[in-house]
Amino acid sequence: VCLCEGLGNMTLFDKAQALKFPKLVEINFDHCSDLEELPGSICSLTSLERLSVTNCHLIQKLPDDLGRLRSLRLLRLSTCPSLSMLPPSICRLQQLKFLDISLCMSLKDLPMEFDQLPKLKMLGMNECSGLKMLPKALAKLRSLKRVICDEHTEQQWLAIKASAMPNLTVDVVEERFNLDWLDD
Q1: Which of 31, 68, 91, 92 would be a feasible disulfide site paired with 55, CB 3.0-4.6 Å?
Q2: Domain spanning 15-172: CATH superfamily
């Protein structure tokens, strides 16, 4: 689903329709300009391995039952600046290997149970300016190999690396979007 309008006022599919796609493995929502919330029925797609919600500027929340997507390996939520929280059930995604929350500036914190993601290998979180403190549970992610962050969380990640994860690669990217010029 790309460059769509009208999804914000529409039920994408109900639970019965979702069950008609038992082998669906990937869904992409990109530039859906009026999408404010993913439909909860998406959580019935238990074969889903990849879910991308990118450049959806109005999306504020994810379904509480997101953790039902037991086959999910990739979750990309980049450039959703209004997304204010990740549901705690995200920590039940036992197969999740890749999580990208880059440019989700309204995220205030990560679920404390993040250490329950046993297969998470890569975390992209650059330009998440709303995240001030990382949960201590991140140090327990033994499978985490690479973090992409910005200068706001770099020191926290380097401290985690030094204390508990010596093999972690911390890549720091420069800020791409900056509205500081508005203050001039």
Answers
A1: 31
A2: Ribonuclease Inhibitor (3.80.10.10)
